[in-house]
């Protein structure tokens, strides 16, 4: 593509954009059970879009230039703190998403301890990969601690044993993404506090819905800033606060803990750079949209939405358990479900990657997850309020998809392909080798894939380090412009 020599009419540009969007996964209606969060509330998108437009040209780089953004950010942080056990001393920042919030929590902990050489962050092995990304970017050692193999919960004793003089942060999840379970935050936070180490709770997914579950009578474990030893917490507004993409909140128990998050530089002849987050220029659009949605829905609105999603989770959890050959992993306490082939049967006769493809053909997207430690290959479901009412259709299609996958049988990789994978060195993988793997798998090319079971089986056969390298190559193929 090159730019047109003469600009196109606005409506033509929008028509082309609409045409491009027809190939995307649906973002509304509850059929995409990952990546998107749909309240199902009529008019909410339009409100957010109007609020976004009103502030899209503003810049959060300088709050003195745009005091409206400062006011809205402080309002949002105050609302999050009130919901999540914060006290009068609690402070925070609005970020672009959960990854930025998590990375800033790691950065703040590292920057607060310049005396520590080769710092460490202690993570349950189920912690979100964003923390590994932070460790990679900031030169920190990530110490991963195995979780309970049956419950997938962090092991407080093992987490405590992993803390040493180089540890600057301990991380737990509420809930963990892969299995939807809430780690034992009080026990881990207490162990971190005894060593004078910060403890971050990744509540990016659960932070805006678990308090409402508790208000509805669900037995939600303690996880928020009211827990002694918890020093910071992240919660995404573009998840169960149902705000548009691009808004998360990082809360700190007090201002002294946040100070090391900020960046200032006067070491050049321009303006003194002063940033509260990793970004400098920040459009005010996402912030204004989130502020508008929060104020429009209010506490009662979020309680009602939580009731809907809780009902959907209960129905789906029960219904999936009744499908022959499937079971739910662990004991999820939130809105996330992990579905596996039932290992009580010696040979279930199908694999979950084929089930995922069959569900895609039926108009649903379930996210494949690879095997890791005691967790076998599985399908991830993010349940939202928009799934309420459509549970029978999803369950019927899932049962049909399992039957179809059983008729197809498990994916079988050619012996030469598995042998080639076993002999690959991740550090030396070339584009030619990757293309050869695709050819052996009978795939035309990464950009033309319609069914993913074969390539997921290939990736599942690779150890994690090689899988990472293969996916980097896959990403490079996808992000290559056509001439």
UniProtKB/TrEMBL annotation:
Q: Which cofactor does it need?
A: pyridoxal 5'-phosphate
Biological process GO terms, please?
Answer: carboxylic acid metabolic process
Task: Report keywords, A-Z.
Answer: Lyase, Pyridoxal phosphate
Q: What Pfam families does the record tag this protein with?
A: Pyridoxal_deC (PF00282)
Modified positions (N6-(pyridoxal phosphate)lysine) in chain numbering:
239
One term of GO molecular function: aromatic-L-amino-acid decarboxylase activity
Q: Which Gene3D superfamilies match?
A: 6.10.140.2150, Aspartate Aminotransferase, domain 1 (3.90.1150.10), Type I PLP-dependent aspartate aminotransferase-like (Major domain) (3.40.640.10)
* PANTHER family xrefs: PTHR42735, SPHINGOSINE-1-PHOSPHATE LYASE 1
Similarity annotation = Belongs to the group II decarboxylase family. Sphingosine-1-phosphate lyase subfamily.
- Protein name, UniProt field: Glutamate/tyrosine decarboxylase-like PLP-dependent enzyme
């Amino acid at each position: 593509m090159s730019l047109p020599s003469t600009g196109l009419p606005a409506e033509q540009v929008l028509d082309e954009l609409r045409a491009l969007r027809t190939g995307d996964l649906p973002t509304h209606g509850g059929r995409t059970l990952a990546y998107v969060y749909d309240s199902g509330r009529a008019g909410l998108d339009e409100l957010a879009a109007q609020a976004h437009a009103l502030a899209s040209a503003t810049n959060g780089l300088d709050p003195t230039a745009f005091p409206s953004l400062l006011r809205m950010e402080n309002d949002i942080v105050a609302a999050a703190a009130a919901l999540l056990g914060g006290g009068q001393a609690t402070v925070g920042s609005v970020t672009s998403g959960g990854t930025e919030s998590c990375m800033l929590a790691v950065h703040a902990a590292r920057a607060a301890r310049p005396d520590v050489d080769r710092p460490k962050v202690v993570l349950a092995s189920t912690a979100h990969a964003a923390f590994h990304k932070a460790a990679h970017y900031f030169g920190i050692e990530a110490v991963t601690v195995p979780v309970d193999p049956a419950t997938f919960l962090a092991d407080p004793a093992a987490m405590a044993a992993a803390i040493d003089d180089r540890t600057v942060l301990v991380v737990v999840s509420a809930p963990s993404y892969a299995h939807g379970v809430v780690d034992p935050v009080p026990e881990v936070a207490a162990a971190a506090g005894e060593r004078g180490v910060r403890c971050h709770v990744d509540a990016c997914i659960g932070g805006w819905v678990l308090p409402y579950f508790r208000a509805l009578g669900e037995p939600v474990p303690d996880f928020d800033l009211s827990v002694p030893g918890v020093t910071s917490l992240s919660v995404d507004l573009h998840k169960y606060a149902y705000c548009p993409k691009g808004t998360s909140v990082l809360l700190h128990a007090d201002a002294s803990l946040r100070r090391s998050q900020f960046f200032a530089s006067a070491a050049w002849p321009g303006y003194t750079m002063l940033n509260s987050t990793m970004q400098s220029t920040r459009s005010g659009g996402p912030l204004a949209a989130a502020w508008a949605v929060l104020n429009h829905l209010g506490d009662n609105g979020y309680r009602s939405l939580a009731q809907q999603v809780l009902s959907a989770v209960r129905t789906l959890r029960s219904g999936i358990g009744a499908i022959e050959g499937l079971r739910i992993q662990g004991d999820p306490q939130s809105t996330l479900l992990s579905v596996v082939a039932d290992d009580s049967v010696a040979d279930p006769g199908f694999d979950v990657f084929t089930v995922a493809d069959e569900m895609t053909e039926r108009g649903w997207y379930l996210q494949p997850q690879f095997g890791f430690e005691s967790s076998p290959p599985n399908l991830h479901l993010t349940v939202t309020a928009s799934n309420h009412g459509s549970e029978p259709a999803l369950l019927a299609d899932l049962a049909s998809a399992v039957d179809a996958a059983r008729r197809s049988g498990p994916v079988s990789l050619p012996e030469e392909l598995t042998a080639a994978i076993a002999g690959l060195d991740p550090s030396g993988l070339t584009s030619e080798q990757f293309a050869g793997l695709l050819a052996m798998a009978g795939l035309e090319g990464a950009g033309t894939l319609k069914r993913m079971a074969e390539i997921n089986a290939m990736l599942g056969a690779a150890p994690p380090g090689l899988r990472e390298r293969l996916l980097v190559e896959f990403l490079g193929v996808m992000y290559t412009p056509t001439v």
